[in-house]
Specification:
Layout: H1 6-21, H2 25-38, H3 43-55, H4 59-72, H5 77-89, H6 93-106, H7 110-116
């Protein structure tokens, strides 16, 4: 097994970003698993892995990761929005609505406000 160091993890993180951007979420997950094993507190790596799980339709894993982020960063509007999208995609709109509204309250981006449906 090759030796790893902080630089190796940065390289793995950057490579995972490229894989996710090029629509290879499963490849990104493989790289991020080792980064997160070495740095479990890394919110950025966990957020990217959650996005990769979502992109590869691994919704339970995506939910678990987004929930972890929301639990540790309750003011992360994107994590709330993405968790809501995950609930929505897995057929749980009631759970989604709460997180859509939290996302919009934290960051009034148009897409968050639209999803929150405050007027209904």
């Amino acid at each position: 097994m090759p030796e790893t160091n902080p630089e190796t993890h940065v390289i793995g993180f950057r490579a995972a970003e490229r894989l996710l951007a090029s629509r290879d979420p499963r490849g990104a997950i493989k790289l991020l698993d080792s980064v997160i094993a070495a740095h479990p507190e890394s919110g950025a790596a966990r957020l990217m892995r959650a996005r990769a799980y979502f992109a590869s339709a691994q919704l339970r894993a995506a939910e678990r990761e987004f929930q972890h982020i929301v639990d540790h960063e309750p003011d992360n509007a994107f994590a709330h929005f993405a968790l809501a999208r995950t609930f929505q995609r897995s057929g749980r709109p009631d759970r989604a609505q709460r997180h859509f509204r939290l996302a919009a309250a934290l960051d009034p981006r148009p897409e968050y406000l639209e999803a929150a449906r405050f007027d209904s």
